[in-house]
Amino acid sequence: MPEKSTPSPRDFASVLARLNAEFAGVHLEATVSRCVEAARQGALDVTGRATPDLVERIARQHLQVLALAFAERR
């Protein structure tokens, strides 16, 4: 059974800060926060671990897809 990683909340705070800065003017902070939490939960469900690096990569991809979908609607 894989060992579950339990990064500190500070690790995810830095992920949130980086993604909020990257997507400022594109997504609300609440949207970024929901994507990070969904990425964290998805990583845990699939791999049993949710490292900050993995969560950040997954959340960034989700945010990029959302931005593209919103841009296509305009």
How would you portray this structure in words?
This protein is an all-alpha fold and 74 residues long. 74% of the residues lie in helices and 0% in strands. The chain contains three helices and no strands. Helix 1 (9-22) packs parallel to helix 3 and helix 2 crosses helix 3 (52-73). The protein is globular and about 40 Å long. The protein starts with 8 loop residues before the first helix and ends with a helix. The model has no long low-confidence stretch (mean pLDDT 91).
Strand content: under 5%
How many whole angstroms does the radius of gyration measure? 13 Å
Helical content stands at: over 70%
Q: Helix- and strand-based class? A: mainly alpha
For the largest beta-sheet, the strand count, sense and barrel status come to: none
Total strands: the figure is 0
Count of helical segments? 3
Uncertain regions: pLDDT < 50 for 5+ in a row?
A: none
Mean pLDDT, all residues: 91
Q: What is the 3D shape?
A: globular
Report the span from N to C terminus.
Answer: 47 Å
Order of helices and strands: HHH
